[in-house]
Design brief:
The structure is a single chain. The chain has 374 residues and is of the alpha/beta class. The protein has one domain: Glycosidases (TIM Barrel, Alpha-Beta Barrel). The chain is built from eleven helices and twelve strands. The N terminus is likely disordered.
């Protein structure tokens, strides 16, 4: 969620790619883009002392929705939600499963290292504590008259940076579990499976708490966006990941998709060198991670993280080329509207990432104009 670039995106074996030819990929695109909620990520805002100014800048850029994160101190999270609402921003709150407060005191995190974070094991999540903390937080929002648009439950549970049940090691020695057979051969397999079972239980608890809430009952409940990377990239990273297809299978097996209103998706698309191939490539990559959201029978997908990196000096950088990528990606979503239900897309990110931000050195980059045209 914070400042990492997942730069490899595999073809997913369990999903048939959408039948899109490289040439003529836009032939079936609608003349006018269908409605799509557009927002921006500003995670970890509760730790900033100038959060109100940051949110004012987001609203001033013509952005109507923001994805905020949930982490202690929770009083500060309430403050940032209040500030966002005061600036007319709709709020998607991402509740990660790695909170200390969701576990008995004294439990240690799996250590970090090799460029990856320490992380609690998903298998140690305590459903009773989860209910107490989340229920109390929603009650606090109700008491203050603050309303959430949506709640995303979890963040990349299939990746070792956010799930301590998955190991880390030296770069070049990462593990990638393509299938159940791959996972079964690992000594941590039982813990990984137990973690996904507990996640499914937590999603059910959260759904009930939201529906029982006085003001949050209409909030869209979104499943965790999953990590998407190839075996090769994961191996180089030193981390461990479940393939998108295996993680999706475990979510489905534990009833997650039946309990949520929308399916969370994280996608950082690869970019072909030839501009003429970009639309077809983006459409293919979107199709590979939206299998639960086929039109006419599936769920709606929410792209709660997407974006393209742009390196350079923060105070002199110009990124009109990235603005074109944003617009091509938005058009690609529109071109799939008759086959894939996508309800929202939250760009990563506003000003927190050196590589992905659209606001740097106190100014909006040209790519921020993407929202002004919405």
């Amino acid at each position: 969620m914070r400042g990492r670039w997942r730069k490899a995106f595999p073809a997913l074996a369990y999903l048939a790619c959408l039948p899109l030819a490289e040439a003529g990929a836009q032939d079936a695109c609608p003349a006018v883009d269908p409605p799509l909620t557009l927002g921006v990520n500003r995670t970890n805002l509760m730790w900033e002392t100038d959060s109100a100014d940051i949110l004012a800048g987001i609203a001033g850029a013509g952005i109507g929705h923001v994805r905020l994160s949930f982490s202690q101190p929770y009083e500060n999270v309430v403050r940032t939600i209040r500030e966002a609402r005061e600036h007319g921003l709709g709020v998607l709150l991402a509740i990660g499963m790695g909170q200390n407060s969701f576990r008995p005191q004294g439990l240690e995190r799996r250590p970090g290292g090799f460029g990856l974070h320490s992380a609690h094991r998903l298998s140690t999540l305590d459903p009773t504590l989860f209910r107490r903390v989340v229920g109390g937080f929603l009650a606090r929002l109700d008491a203050e008259g603050l309303v959430l648009d949506a709640i995303e439950l979890g963040n990349e549970e299939n990746w070792s940076d956010f799930n301590g049940d998955l190991p880390i090691g030296p770069k070049g020695e990462g593990r990638f579990y393509e299938s159940r057979a791959d996972l079964a051969a690992d000594p941590d397999a039982a813990n990984v499976l137990e973690g996904f079972r507990r996640y499914g239980e937590a999603v059910g608890i959260a759904r009930d708490l939201v529906r029982e809430s006085r003001l949050q009952q209409d909030a869209t409940i979104v499943s965790s966006g999953l990590f998407t990377a190839s075996r090769e990239w994961t191996g180089r990273s030193g981390g461990a990941a479940l393939s998108y297809s295996l993680a999706t299978e475990l979510l489905r097996e534990n009833g997650v998709f039946a309990k949520v209103d929308a399916v969370g998706v994280h996608l950082y698309p690869g970019v072909p060198e030839q501009p003429s191939r970009r639309m077809a490539s983006f459409m293919r990559q979107i199709g590979e991670v939206t299998g639960e959201c086929r039109a006419g029978g599936g769920k709606t997908c929410w792209l709660t993280e997407w974006g393209f990196p742009k390196e350079g000096d923060a105070c002199t950088l110009t990124d009109e080329d990235r603005l074109r990528l944003f617009r091509d990606f938005r058009r690609s979503v529109a071109c799939l509207s008759d086959r894939v239900e996508i309800g929202a897309a939250y760009l990563y990110d506003w000003d927190d990432s050196r590589s992905f931000s659209i606001h740097r050195c106190g100014r909006n980059l040209p790519s921020a104009e993407f929202f002004a045209a919405d």
